[in-house]
Amino acid sequence: MFRCLILVCAIGVLLSFPASVWADAAQEAFAKGQALFNKGDLDGALASFATAARIDRTNDKYMERYSVVRRIVALRQSLQAEADAERWLYLARALYALYCQEGMLSDAAALAQAIHGKLNDVSSAVILAETQLALGQNAEAAKVLSALGEHQSTASSRALLGIALARQGNLDRARKISDSIVVAEGAGPQTHYSLARLYALTADPAKALSALTRCMESLAPSRQESFREHARRCPDFAGLASTPGFVKALATPSKVPESACSGGSGCAGCPMRGKCAESCAQQGK
Amino acid sequence: MKKTRHGVQLGLLALTLVGVFVVRGNAELWCPLGGVEGLYGYLAEGTMICSLGTTNFCILGGVLVMTMLLRRAFCAYMCPIGTISEWLGALGARLGLAAPSVPALADRLLGLAKYAVLGAILFLTWRAGELVFRAYDPCYALLSRHGADITVWAYVVCGAVAAGSLVISLPFCRWFCPMAAVLSPFSALGLTRIKRSSESCRDCGRCAEVCPMAIRVDQLPEVTAARCTSCMNCLDACPHQRTGALRWGPPAWLGAAWPQGVLLALMFGCTGAAVWGAYSYPLPSFVKSRGVPPAQTATVRLRIENLTCRGRANLLWWFLERDDLDAVPGYLKLEAWPGPGTAQTRITYDPTHTDEHKIQRAIVEPYYNMATESWWNSPFRVEGYDPLHSDPLLMAPKAP
C-alpha cells in the first residue's frame, strides 16, 4: 500500500514538474515580450510572444498578443512598401486603429500626422487633433484645427478646437465656439461626445450631460462600453464624473438596433433567428 | 389494408415527432417542398435557403419517383398533415359533423387553388431568398418547436385546416396543398391505378362514398385522376372485392394486380434510396466561386467552427474575398456544408497564387473595416490551424 502511494506520488511529481517548468518558461517569454513591446521593439516582442504561445498552447492570452503584434508589424511593413495612395490610406487607418487600441498614442499621433499630411482635410485633421488631445498636446491640436478654413470646419472639429482652447485656459473663446456650434440632425456619437467634453470644460454641466446622453443613445450597444470607459477616464469630465447625472447619462440605453447577425441576407429563415431576436430585445432595453 | 396504412401513418408521424421534439432534428431538411423552394436559389446562386439543405433535393427526388409509381401515396401514407386531417375527418364523422359533399364543379375549381398557392410560394420564396411560406405553413406550425420563428398566422391556418378537416374530407390536401400541386403532374403519369371490373362490380357506389378525394370510382373503368392517393379505401369498402370488382396494380403487362405490400416496398424503397443518397453523396448547400479556374487547381478540406448557417457561410466567403494583407489572390471556390458544431468545407484555389496556410489565415484573421473604422474579428476557427506554423514574419531575417 505504502509502496503504491510512493509510486503514485513519484509519477505525479514527474508529470507535474515539466508542466510547471513549461508554464514558467512561457510566462517568462511572455513577460519578456511585454517588456520589449513597451520599449517599442515589436520584432523582439513578436518573437517572444510566439515563443510563449508555442510553449503553452492552452493560454489564449499568449496567442492573442502574438496575433495583435504580428498585425502591427505586418501593417508597418506593408505601409512602407505601399505605393498606391488609396491602399496606403486603408493600411494607415487600420494601423492607426490598432495603435489606439493598444494605447500606442505616440505612434498613433505620428501616423495621424502622416495621414493628415497626405489628405489634409477635416476628417484627417480631426483624427490628428483627437490623438494630440489624448497626448495632452493641446496647443498642437488647436493649431491643426485652427488651420481649417471656416467652410471646412464641422461641428466635431469646432468642438475639438474648443476643447483644445479650454484646456489651455482660453475659456472665453471656447465658450464662444461652444455657443456657435449647431449640431446637425443625425450627427454621429463622436460629435455628441466631443461636444459633451467641451460643455463640461466650459462649465455647462446641463448641456454636457444632455450631449452625453445623446451620444450614448446614438451608439450601437456593442460600442457603448468603450465610450463609457473613455468617459470615466477622460480628464475633461473630471468635474462631472462623480455626479449622479453623469452616471445616469452613461447608463443611457442605445436607440440603435443591433443584432448578433452573421451577415446573412435576411432573418426569416435563419436557424439562429430565435437567439437573434432575443439579443436584439435585450440590447434595446 | 386500412389498418396497415394507419399503422404506417402512425409510425411515420411518431418518428417525425421523436425526430423533432426528442432528437431535436431539423424536420425542414427532409421536407420535399423545401426541395422545390430551394431549387432556384441553388441553381442560380449555389446557395440553399436557410434551414434547408441538399437533403431536400434527395427527398424530393424520392417522392417524385414514388409518385410516378404509386401516384400521391406520399399524401396518404407519409405526410403528417394528411394523417392528422384524415384522423380529424374520422372524428368529425363520428361526431356527426360531416357536411354534405361539395358539388363536383366547385371541387374542381377549388382544386385549382393549390396551383395558385404553389405559384405564389415559389415566386415569393425565389424573390426573397427566404422561406416566406413558413409564416403560414400549417405543417411548420405542427412540426417546429414553437419558438420565436412561429407566427400567429401559422396557427391560424393550422386551426382552419383542422376545423375544415372535421367537416370536409381532406380540404387542405385536395384544394390548397402546394406539395399536391407539385405532385399532381407526376401523379397523372402514375404507373399503378385502381381498376374496376364492370363484370364483377354491382354498382353499389360504396367505393365513391369512402374516397377521401371525392373520386367517382364507381363510374370509372380505371382511376387515372392525379389526385388519387392510392389509399385503397375503395378496395377496403368494396363488398365484391373477392370477385375482383376493384383491384390495384400496374398495367396488365406488369401483372395487373399487386398486393399492398408492393406499394409499401416501393414507397419505403424510394424513401430509403433518397435518405441513403443524401447521406452518401452530400452536396454542398453553399457554393461560391471567384474568377476562372486555372489549368491546375488545388483543394483543401477544412473543418470550421461557427459555420452554422447560410449567413455565416456568406460571412466566411466575405473573409475569403478580403482585400487586405491576408487577401487570397487568384481563383477561389468555396463549397460548404454549414451546420451546428464543426462544419465541413472544401476550398479550391490556384496553387501558383496562394497556399493552404494563407487560406486558413484569411479565414481567422480580423479584418479592418474602413466604413465602421473598426477591426472585425472573425467568428471562425479552423480545426488544426496553427497561426505560428510557417509565419513569414517570424522566419524573416532581421535587419542588423
Plain-language structure description:
The complex is a heterodimer of chains A (285) and B (400). Chain A has 285 residues and is an all-alpha fold. The termini of chain A are far apart. Chain A is elongated, with a radius of gyration of 25 Å. Chain B is 48% helix and 11% strand. Chain B is built from 17 helices and ten strands. In chain B, strands 4-6-7-5-10 form a five-stranded antiparallel β-sheet, covered by helices on one side. Chain B has a three-stranded antiparallel β-sheet with strand order 2-1-3, with no helix packed on it. In chain B, a hairpin with a 4-residue loop joins strand 8 and strand 9. In chain B, helix 2 packs across helix 3, helix 3 runs antiparallel to helix 14 and helix 5 crosses helix 9. The longest helix of chain B is centred in the first third of the chain and has 21 residues. The mean pLDDT of chain B is 87. At the A-B interface, helix 2, helix 3, helix 4 and helix 14 of A face helix 15 of B.
Q: What's the overall average pLDDT of chain A, rounded?
A: 85
Question: H/E element string of chain B?
Answer: HHHHHHHHHHHEHEHEHEEHEEHEEEH
Q: Which pair of protein chains has the largest interface, and what are the residue counts?
A: A-B, 38 and 39 residues
By secondary-structure content and strand pairing, the structural class of chain B works out as alpha+beta
What is the first-to-last residue Cα distance of chain A? 63 Å
Strand content of chain A: under 5%
Strand content range of chain B: 5-15%
**Share of helical residues of chain B:** 40-55%
Major sheet details of chain B: 5 strands, antiparallel
Radius of gyration of chain B: 27 Å
Query: Uncertain regions of chain A: pLDDT < 50 for 5+ in a row?
Result: 276-285
Count of helical regions of chain A: 14
Strand order of the largest sheet of chain B: 4-6-7-5-10
Helix content of chain A: over 70%
What order do the helices and strands of chain A follow?
HHHHHHHHHHHHHH
Note the quaternary state here.
Answer: heterodimer
